[in-house]
Amino acid sequence: MPRYASLGFLFAASLAVLAACSTGTAPGARVAEDKGPAATAAPEPTPLGNYLAAGHAQEVHDYAAAARFVERALASDPDNFELVRRAFVLRLSEGHVDEAVPLARRIVDLDGNRGLAAIVLLLEDMKAGNFNAAAERAKTLSRDGAQRYAVPLLLAWIDAGRKQAVPARQALDEMGALRGLEPLRELHQGLIADFTDNSDEAQQDFDKLVAAEPQPTFRIIQVVGNFYERHERVEDAKRLYQSFTDDDDETRIAEAGLARIAAGQIPPRLITTAQQGAAEALFDLASLLDQRETIDAALIYARLALALEPNFPLAQLLVAEIRSSEDRTQEALALYRAVDPKSPLAWSARLRAALAEDALDQSDQAIAELKAMAAERPNSPSALVELGDVLRGKSKFDDAAKAYDEAIHRLGPEQAQARSWRLFYDRGVAYERSGQWPRAEADLKHALELSPEQPMVLNYLGYSWIDKGENLQDGLKMIQRAVELRPNDGYIVDSLGWAYYHIGDLGKATQYLERAIELLPEDPTINDHLGDVYWQDGRSAEARFQWRRALQFGPEPGDVKSIETKLDHGLVKPAQAVSGG
User: Fold this and answer.
1) Neighbours of 88 (CB within 10 A)
2) pLDDT confidence of 80, banded at 50, 70, 90?
3) At 162, phi and psi to the nearest 5?
4) How many CA atoms are closer than 13 Å to the CA of 93, on its beta-carbon side?
5) Residues with Cβ < 8 Å from 509, sequence gap 6 or more?
6) Among the three residues 94, 119, 134, which one is the final residue of a domain in this structure?
7) For the chain, what is the domain count?
8) According to DSSP H, which parts of 310-452 are helical?
């Protein structure tokens, strides 16, 4: 699906023009002196200025601003179909679906009943309970791109809303047999059968779904477990929940399900309206599209899911994660905080809200929240793991190590090992940065035992050994393997170059550090390392250039004085060619 950013190339070449058109001032012109009230009013931006400003806002994912600029341009050129379509897509992207509806009607009038505009109108029919009108619109929709799966799913739930179970199942068959989508079709077959009170069919669909998934997702566990509990398959529900308990620290759906079973309680049905089912379908499609190449489409489908079902925690979290990845952290934080406190996903939302606060430089608030959450659930490690990450990001390494240590203690050694290498890696990094190398080395070795081919561990342990002048050949081999596994990771490539520097191979050190600079040109440490190598190779002017770049890109405070000293006096300590193991 296109990103609807067709003028990105024009904006990139027109920064000066954008600034000028947005203010009415020509590039390089001086601002006139204030001659009185009439001279103080800023001229209205030109249509081109609004258009270019919209392109810039869209590039930085500020969809609200982009929509405003496009609509200003549209006011000057109201019959411009491309502007209408851009305004429509931007309103969807920012989550203002109601404001997109009039634009959708214009698009359908001009371009026929196809595309996202028709889907928005179809959803409006569903929200109004007008399933017959929605069905008529769905039958004429194209099946291009993601609509190949969106339309059959929506049509199936429209038929379910009309209590037509057989046509609903036939609509899902339109999705075809594309490999990888079978679980999606089976999930909705089961949900629709359950919704239309065809329990035998729902049971077959759900049994097949669970059997085909060796590690069912949170949602599959929730849906199928709920069905089993409501249909006197208590032992099957217990087995399903028990298989999920080790990975259920954030949602507690398994724990809640087992508690209901022990108390003899029966949960309500999860999907009670066709609109909720359609929202589930749109969310599932958004999840499938949540990839770098299709993230814009994922955001729109998740927004449409929320338009149908505003209190839908899964969709709220997905939109928040996408917006966070687009550096719109404040919006992500609001979405996390909007999740219903009674939802099984509320704990996960609170954890992510704390991380968003940290990203917004509200670290004290984030740390306080995570500590409170750790006290609130004294047997849960999740808040402590996130607390360790926040503290480590603030260079409070000793405190971070203590947080990770308590998280591992809460899990117990066996469960911690079964869960992941990551906990031991994180604690090892915190130990190393806080000057507790023997403990760090033990944790890093243990993480490597749990995941022998994990490039992050191979890199960190190998780099640490070489930096300390220990186990040089083993460390070099580890980093070489890490680079094989992640050849485009600038930090790992830097480690290999730095390792060659330490063993005195300046040629290979230069080769890999220059490659690391290509991958991460603004990293201060890599620039500093390359400067050291250039100096040792007799390239003093280039060395000083790299050190100046290192200072320009904000190195850690402890490294600033060292770099400044090198700029003033050069690198006194020669590279040591060491071949020991």
Assistant:
1) 26
2) confident
3) -90, 5
4) 29
5) 497, 498, 500, 501, 533
6) 94
7) 2
8) 313-325, 329-338, 346-359, 363-376, 382-393, 397-411, 413-419, 422-433, 437-450
User: Does 296 have pLDDT greater than 50?
Assistant: yes
Contact (Cβ atoms closer than 8 angstroms) between residue 128 and residue 109: no
Task: Please give the torsion angle defined by the CA atoms of residues 46, 49, 51 and 53, in that order, rounded to the nearest 10 degrees.
Answer: -140
For residues 350 and 353, give the distance between their C-alpha atoms in angstroms, rounded to a whole number. 5
Out of 42, 74, 94, a domain closes at 94
Question: d(Cα 338, Cα 348) in Å, to the nearest integer?
Answer: 12
Closest alpha carbon to 274 in 212, 371, 196 = 196
Residue 175's identity, in one-letter code, is M
Asked if residue 280 belongs to a domain, the reply is no
pLDDT tens digits, 319-328: 999 999 999 9
Tokens (6 digits) for 286? 């958004």
Neighbours of 13 (CB within 10 A): 8
Q: For residue 562, give the nearest of 534, 529, 538 by alpha carbon.
A: 529
Contact 116, 89 (CB under 8 A): yes
Q: Which residue, among 581, 576, 522, 525, has the nearest Cα to 553 in the 3D structure? A: 522
Distances from the Cα of 468 to the Cα of 254, 436, 461, 521, angstroms: 46, 13, 11, 26
Q: Which long-range contacts (CB under 8 A, 24 or more apart) does 314-318 make?
A: 314/219, 314/283, 314/345, 315/279, 315/282, 315/283, 315/286, 316/349, 317/345, 317/348, 317/349, 317/352, 318/283, 318/286, 318/287, 318/290
Q: Provide the CATH number for the domain around residue 488.
A: 1.25.40.10
Residue pair 313/290 in contact by the 8 Å Cβ criterion: no
d(CA 396, CA 367): 12
Task: Collapse the DSSP code of 273 into the 3-class scheme (helix H, G, I; strand E, B; otherwise coil) and give the result.
Answer: coil
d(CA 255, CA 245): 7
CB 82 within 8 A of CB 50: no
Q: pLDDT by residue (tens digit) across 405-455?
A: 999 998 876 666 656 889 999 999 999 999 999 999 999 999 999 999 999
Q: Does residue 24 sit within a domain? A: yes
Give CA–CA dist 275/147, Å, rounded: 18
- Rounded CA gap, 105 and 126, in Å? 16
**Whole-number Cα distances in Å, 238 to 43, 193, 231, 247, 266:** 69, 23, 13, 15, 13
pLDDT digit string (tens) for 199-226?
A: 999 999 999 999 887 778 889 999 999 9
Alpha-carbon distances, residue 128 vs 99, 122, 262 (angstroms)? 17, 10, 40
By residue range, what is the domain housing residue 56?
Answer: 1-94
Angle between helices 182-195 and 165-173 (to 10 degrees): 170
503 three-state secondary structure? coil
